[in-house]
Amino acid sequence: MEAQGILERIKRIIGEADLVWVDDQPGDPYLVIPKEKLRRLAIYLKGDPHLAFDSLMCL
């Protein structure tokens, strides 16, 4: 799944108001979220069978 598709799924879980999507820097795009939402997002990303994230980088 491309980054934009992942972002759309995350928006449904976290809410768009709390997201900062950065895609104008060299390298891969990334997302900044409030620390209070990190656990909820991590559980979602690991548990969604279409995403199946099993590790996080650049925390």
Topology:
Elements: H1 3-14, E1 20-22, E2 30-32, H2 38-47
Antiparallel strand pairs: 1-2
Annotation keywords:
2 strands, alpha+beta, single chain, 10% strand, two-stranded antiparallel sheet, 59 residues, 37% helix, globular, 2 helices
Please explain how this structure is put together:
A two-stranded antiparallel sheet has the order 1-2. Helix content is 37%, strand content 10%. The protein has two helices and two strands, in the order αββα. By secondary structure, it is α+β, with helices and mostly antiparallel strands. It has one domain. The mean pLDDT is 86.
Question: Rg to the nearest angstrom?
Answer: 11 Å
Strand content: 5-15%
Q: Which spans of ≥5 residues are poorly predicted at pLDDT below 50?
A: none
Sketch the topology as an H/E string, one letter per element: HEEH
> What general form does the structure show?
globular
Q: Count the helices. How many?
A: 2
Report mean pLDDT, rounded to a whole number: 86
Please count the beta strands (DSSP E, at least 2 residues each). Answer: 2
> For the largest beta sheet, what order do the strands appear in spatially?
1-2
Summarize the entry for a quick read:
With 59 residues, this protein is of the alpha+beta class.
